[in-house]
Amino acid sequence: MTDYVLQVDDLTMHYKTRAGEVSAVNNVTFSLERGKSMGLVGESGCGKTSVAFSLLKLLPDNAYIKNGAIKLNDVDIVPMREEDMRKLRWSKISMVFQAAMNALNPVYKVGDQIIEAMENHNLVETNQAARDHVADLFKLVGLDPKLMDQYPHEYSGGMRQRAVIAMALSCDPDLIIADEPTTALDVIVQDALLREMIELQKNLKMSMIYISHDIAVIAEVTDRIGVMYAGRMAEYGSALEIFKSPLHPYSFGLMSAFPSIIGDKRELTTLPGEPPDLLSPPSGCRFHPRCPFATEICAQETPEFKDMGNQHYVACWHPMEAN
Amino acid sequence: MCADQAIQEPLVKVEGLQKLYPLATGIFKKTSGYIHAVDGLNFEIADGESLALVGESGSGKTTTGKLLVRLIDPTTGAIRMQVDGYEKDIAQLRGAGLKGFRRYVQMIFQDPYESLNPRRTIFDTVAEPLVVQGIGDVAEREQLVAHYLDLVGLSPPDTFLWRFPHELSGGQRQRVAIARALVVVPTFVVADEPTSMLDVSIRTGIMKLMQSLAEQMGVTYLYITHDLAVARYMSNRLAVMYLGKIVEMGEIEELLVNPLHPYTKALLSAVPVPDPSFKRQIPNIKGSISQPINPLPRCRFYDRCPIAAKVCEDNDHPPLDDKGAGHLAACYLI
What we know:
The complex is a heterodimer of chains A (323) and B (334). Chain A has 323 residues and is an alpha/beta fold. Helices cover 31% and strands 24% of the residues of chain A. Chain B has one domain (3-104, 186-329): Rossmann fold. Helix content of chain B is 32%, strand content 24%. Chain B has an 8-stranded mixed sheet, with helices on both faces. Chain B has a 4-stranded antiparallel sheet with strand order 2-1-4-5. The model of chain B is unreliable at 1-6 (pLDDT under 50).
């Protein structure tokens, strides 16, 4: 039997707003094998960060999980109480946030902040042992251990992001969620950090969910890819397969709109229209108003998210191969 | 197209352009040195072409763009531009001369959420340059604004004229910013990362719009971006900046296949490729970008260069020389 670190089943998460309920995550189903990495890709507002916050149950006051199960190591965390959840965060599931500057407290030394995270999970026996552990983590993410006694402002952008990754690794979690960790960085710094993350993921056999809007980054980092559109998972499968033969017209459109510096200069395609307002999402398949292959049924009924073979899932009435 | 341009005078000729920012320290704010944000640029932009300026943050690309539209004043250097058939040194313009010049150059900014005044209607925003330049009366302006909104794909224009920026999406806002820049029919437009805040599915539309408008109206672009793949689609020529200097310049397709400068090579190999089966080379570069504060008289790239030699340390920053067929590079070792 396959060992899954995470199984998300039919997850629906809503925000309550004055204008009505926004269904930010809608019937999302996917699972991740232990030791593998998956990418969540999609445009702003498609729900990728909302999925991440649901997995950690770090939801704002006006948001709630309406339906579905999130099984972390085969235990459903949706009904779990906050105090129990707090024990899981960082020790079983941790997150690397996009804005590393905001994720670190400016008035504490970086090393002390990591030790504090470990203390909260009773992982600190002596101060020296904790410092040694932080030094090891720093070496692991490519930082000089001497830097642990410095403050965040003394770090460059890339160094801060490495420190945040070290912090996320500090309690040896089963699953790491990285939300756009390299988006604010320049390409050369981004390249170094991506290589580091790929190494770490492989060497530590870490299970990782990597969230990004940049399909080129996702292509390089992850084994599996989930493409999200308007709160729903449009397609989920192996990275190689999705890039070689995408099944959902949206994945196809996303890839053909993405420029590359490698190979012949091909014509970029434009997706017509704009992503929908989730306060009143389109009926049926949420992509149908922008889809070149849409027919009557697409506007009427929501397509089932089904396995097309080889664990390649798609929610589409007219998957690309048929076209 | 290229053959015509070779005989023509270039639209913009930049000579020895420099911008220094003083660094004030201590309680008396004594000037302790200078940040060499843009340091001795020489380049030309032909009429109707699009030149892309790429580099990491802090390389001076936005400063260069702002200098060319005179949003900031250069410390030294000349910016010669063909304006109405006459060559003018933009760097020397003051007062009314500068205001008149703004009719010929415009800028499109990165963030459409910041660059539009939230309290003004779309009509007010797009008509503003017309009012400032005294073009047309109210009725004519309304007609012109409607025409340009239509041109940038905000149609029917009547439904957009009286709306406010918060009622529009990011892509629509950037279209408004483009209409505002083009409504005075400029000859030269500086576009500073106009698509970096937009989503992929929206971005291509804006890129194509800017290209087709440039062809229709004969606009010349300086396209500033950190994204080489976007530059490839928006421009024919590319200039790579590093710490206030242009280190390499040439035809973009040639530059992508045959980069000469070690910095350009590193930059190209650091760009992620949207293909999981493609394995990139590890960028050959040391350290990270610093600030050009009181730079030593040696090659700016010396600290990070994998092939640096004694000649690079003993001499001032190398000149930007033609290494054959219009492919320029600033390096002693090429």
